C-alpha cells in the first residue's frame, strides 16, 4: 500500500513516531506502520513520559502515537507533552481507561483521537489514516468565519407524544426546504423509527459506532450514514432486543463532534431514558424541543425533565412543543399546563390522525406527505425558529413564564378537573 501522506505532510519532519508501553501493543502497531510506508524503528518502547523526554531534545513527527497506560495523571502529562511538541503535530493517545470524561477532556486538550487497549490492526489503521487527512484537507482561509452549526435535541415527555415525528419532519425541512446539510441521529437504539419514517433500512452504522467508538471519523460518517436525500443523512438502528445497550456514551459524543464538522444542522431524536443515562449527549446541543401532550402525566414528566435540564444542560435553550392538541378536549387547559410546568408552550401542533396515517402509508415524513396540513404549518414555524437560532438570540429570548399560582401542584389540578367535569343532564 502506498503511503498517501507524502504530498501533504511537512517535508522537514519524520512522518511518524510512537511511544508504547507494552510489547503486545507494539506487535500490533509495527505491521500497520510498515503497511503505511513508515519505519517500524519509529515505534519506541516507553510511554508518554519517554515521549516527553525524547521530544524535548528532538524534532516532533507529523503524527505521534503515545501510550497513557503508565500515566497517573494523563491530562497533566498531555499538557507537558504539548510544551515540547511543535505546532501541527497530530497526536493519537492510547490507553486502557474506558471513561467518557477522560475521552472528552483529551479531545478538548487537542488530542486527535483516543484508542482503547487491546489494540487491533483495523483500529490503528483507521486512526492513522484519519490522522493523515489532517494534512491533506483544504485549510480555511485566514479570517474566514467559522461555519455555523445548530444542534437540536427532540425529547418526548412520554412515549407516543410525537417526538420522533417532529424530529424526522424537522430534519426533512432543514434538508429540503432550507437546503442545509443535516444529520439525524436516532438514539432509540432498539426501537427507533427514524429510518422507518423515511422508508429506509437503518443499516448497522449506529451499532458499529457504539461497538467501536475509536473508529468514528469523517470517513466512517460518510460510509455509515444512510442518505435520505441530497442534504439529509441518518444514523439509526434496530438493535436486537436481546442485546442490552453496552456503552459509556463515548460513541455519541464522538458522533456529534464529527457531525459538527460535516453538517450545518444536527437533529438528535433523544428518548428520555437515554437523556438520563447519557447527559453528556447534550453538552453541545443548542436547543431542546420538549415535546408533550396536554395531559396530567405529561405535565408531571415535563416538570421533572425541565428541572433536570436546568441542572444538567443549563446552556441549552428549552422550547416546549404541545402536540396532538384538540380544541376543547384536553385534560388540562393551556394556561394551567403552563402554570404547572412554569414554562410557556412555544408551539401547539393540532391533532391530525388522518395526516399521520397518510404519511405512514406513503412512506414519507409527516410534513412531506401532508404539505397543506395545519399541523405541517406549525412544524414549519418551529423549523424557521430553529434555523434562525444563534447564541445571541437565544440568550435574549423571552424568559420562562413563572407560575401565577405559587405552590401549584398536580393534585390541585386534578381536583379542579374533577369539579369542572360536565354533569350529564337527563332528558325532559
Automatic annotation (TrEMBL):
GO biological process: one example: negative regulation of cell division
Record GO terms (molecular function): ATP binding; ATP hydrolysis activity
GO cellular component, one term: cytosol
Keywords: ATP-binding, Nucleotide-binding
Keyword ATP-binding: yes
Taxonomy, superkingdom: Bacteria
Keyword ATP-binding tagged: yes
Gene3D superfamilies per the UniProt record, alphabetical: 3.40.50.2300, P-loop containing nucleotide triphosphate hydrolases (3.40.50.300)
PANTHER family, alphabetized: SEPTUM SITE-DETERMINING PROTEIN MIND HOMOLOG, CHLOROPLASTIC, SEPTUM SITE-DETERMINING PROTEIN MIND HOMOLOG, CHLOROPLASTIC-RELATED
Protein name as catalogued: Pilus assembly protein CpaE
Organism: Altererythrobacter xiamenensis
Amino acid at each position: 500500500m502506498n503511503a498517501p501522506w507524502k504530498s501533504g505532510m511537512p517535508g522537514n519532519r519524520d512522518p511518524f513516531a510512537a511511544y508504547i508501553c507494552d510489547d503486545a501493543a507494539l506487535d500490533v502497531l509495527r505491521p500497520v506502520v510498515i503497511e503505511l510506508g513508515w519505519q517500524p524503528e519509529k515505534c519506541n518502547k516507553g510511554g508518554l513520559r519517554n515521549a516527553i523526554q525524547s521530544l524535548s531534545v528532538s524534532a516532533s513527527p507529523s503524527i505521534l502515537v503515545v501510550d497513557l497506560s503508565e500515566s497517573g495523571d494523563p491530562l497533566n502529562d498531555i499538557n507537558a507533552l504539548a510544551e515540547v511538541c511543535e505546532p501541527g503535530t497530530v497526536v493519537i493517545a492510547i490507553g486502557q481507561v474506558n471513561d467518557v470524561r477522560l475521552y472528552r477532556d483529551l479531545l478538548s486538550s487537542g488530542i486527535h483521537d483516543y484508542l482503547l487497549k487491546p489494540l487491533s490492526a483495523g483500529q490503528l489503521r483507521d486512526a492513522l489514516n484519519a490522522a493523515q487527512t489532517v494534512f491533506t484537507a483544504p485549510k480555511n482561509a485566514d479570517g474566514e468565519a467559522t461555519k455555523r452549526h445548530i444542534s437540536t435535541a427532540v425529547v418526548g415527555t412520554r412515549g407516543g407524544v410525537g417526538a420522533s415525528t417532529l424530529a424526522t419532519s424537522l430534519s426533512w425541512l432543514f434538508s429540503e426546504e432550507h437546503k442545509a446539510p443535516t444529520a439525524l441521529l436516532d438514539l432509540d437504539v432498539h426501537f427507533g423509527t427514524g429510518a422507518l419514517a423515511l422508508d429506509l433500512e437503518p443499516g448497522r452504522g449506529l451499532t458499529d459506532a457504539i461497538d467501536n467508538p475509536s473508529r468514528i471519523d469523517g470517513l466512517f460518517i460518510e460510509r455509515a450514514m444512510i442518505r435520505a436525500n441530497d442534504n439529509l443523512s441518518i444514523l439509526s438502528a434496530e438493535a436486537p432486543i436481546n442485546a442490552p445497550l453496552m456503552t459509556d456514551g463515548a460513541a455519541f459524543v464522538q458522533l456529534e463532534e464529527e457531525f459538527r464538522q460535516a453538517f450545518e444542522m444536527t437533529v438528535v431524536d433523544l428518548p428520555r431514558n437515554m437523556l438520563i443515562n447519557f447527559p453528556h449527549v447534550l453538552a453541545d446541543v443548542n436547543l431542546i424541543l420538549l415535546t408533550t401532550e396536554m395531559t396530567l402525566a405529561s405535565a408531571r414528566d415535563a416538570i421533572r425533565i425541565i428541572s433536570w435540564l436546568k441542572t444538567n444542560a443549563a446552556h441549552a435553550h428549552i422550547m416546549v412543543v404541545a402536540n396532538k392538541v384538540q380544541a376543547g378536549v384536553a385534560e388540562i387547559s393551556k394556561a394551567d399546563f403552563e402554570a404547572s410546568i412554569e414554562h410557556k408552550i412555544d408551539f401547539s401542533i393540532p391533532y391530525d390522525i388522518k395526516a399521520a396515517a397518510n404519511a405512514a402509508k406513503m412512506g414519507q415524513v409527516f410534513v412531506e406527505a401532508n404539505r397543506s396540513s395545519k399541523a405541517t404549518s406549525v412544524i414549519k414555524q418551529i423549523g424557521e425558529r430553529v434555523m434562525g437560532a444563534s447564541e445571541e438570540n437565544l440568550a435574549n429570548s423571552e424568559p420562562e413564564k413563572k407560575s401565577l399560582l405559587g405552590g401549584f401542584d398536580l393534585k390541585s389540578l386534578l381536583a379542579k378537573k374533577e369539579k369542572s367535569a360536565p354533569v350529564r343532564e337527563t332528558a325532559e
